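Reopening this ticket.

The earlier resolution said the output was attached, but the attachment link was broken on my side. Pasting everything inline this time so it's all in one place.
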Amino acid sequence: MSNSPIDVVLIGGGIMSATLGAMIQRVQPDWSIRIYERLGEVAQESSNPWNNAGTGHAALCELNYMPEASDGTVDPAKAISINEQFQLSRQFWASLVEAGDLPEPNTFINSTPHMTFVRGRDNVRYLRKRYEALKDQPLFAGMEYSEDPAVIGQWTPLLTKKRSTKQRIAATRQTSGTDVDFGALTRALIDNLVENGAELALNHSVRGIKRTKDGLWRLRVRHDVGRTSHVATARFVFVGAGGGALHLLQKSGIPEIKGFGGFPISGQFLRTTDPKIVAQHQAKVYGKAAVGAPPMSVPHLDTRVVDGQASLLFGPYAGFSPKFLKTGSWFDLPGSVRPGNLGPMLAVARDNFDLIKYLVGELLASRAKKLKALQEFMPTADGKDWELITAGQRVQVMKKDPKKGGVLQFGTEVVAAEDGSIAGLLGASPGASTAVPIMVDLLKHCFPDRFAGWLPTIKELIPTVGSTLNDRPEEAQRVLATTAETLHLQQ
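Inline output:
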């Protein structure tokens, strides 16, 4: 490896680094790029297909993007915003497929209907209102609604087979939904980066980050095979290390990270690969979260397609672990405490005791209790057909709040130095699905003097960037159709 300054260092071999690297290589092809990944392969943490549900988050089925207000109304604004963001990701992936820079689309994205399923009179009433608020929105065109068990059973038999006829149920279905293997997508993006000159350093841990007098970043890096160390310098650093981003940004010393903390949430799924069961359920079906549950704990029964093989996942079963990464350390959480974030972290603990209690309860739940939760979705579920797998860690953002002292934020947040020379991503869902718009915003923020010159290339890759589709029905229909055709998806 060269000792001269690297133009761009990406820390972490996940979907965020892969997406940013792919963009930079196209808008500034003469820049050198190096990716440091501490594990032996890329996409082994949150981007790994078995560490997430693979939902192309477009708010087609996720109820947490449209909560019912105290006055009984439901506002579609956030759901529309999330869908708009996912359309930018679809356009970017479609452009790379057309250019031959990504492989056959079915290796990383497949059509999978997105459904919402609820039980009980109040939930049925809410879902009907949500459907009425979305059905005429251009980006949600084609959404279906039913309270008829026979119709819902046609959509996906496992929801209704042997269910009590006395139970009121309702469901929505959007056939244009997708299942995304973010692990395969990440590997394909990074393979293309390397083919075009980027360096990939596997089994390399960044142990320290420090700004030099001349404005560069000095990285202390250890090769974990052999435990040898070296120093690298970079002009721009992106910390896309998932749960590990907080520690590295703290080590950088940038004032912008002061006051931020991380709230780790673990998870598990039940999985079956039994062909007879899998064949009866071809959809991602989301329900309503339990009272006190975090948004990423919304129960869902999902079709997954990984390496061409279909399976079903149910979960996630949330829990608490002090680790910030699945392969992290038990000291991750206490090691992240600083004088600047201790107050906000204590305030979050004070105000979210019910959440902590819920997570501990989930962690201690027996297998029988987990199976019962599945049987509420799928009455015929038999425990012998399902195995319990551990999902990836999610580290939610804790930050200062002038009123409460500290708040727990469910979502993602980019933290960047004032001069834009270093940035990192904190948080989780919808994360991977909206990686493209997140990285476009990061480029705009970190490279304000160059962004205008890059914009024509970005618009070639993402034609509607900087505009919205939902308020332009004909354009929305056209973009949905063209990306669907390129990515071999159902419209």
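Reporter confirms the inline version is readable. The CA atoms of residues 272 and 384 lie 9 Å apart. The chain is about 35% helix and 25% strand.
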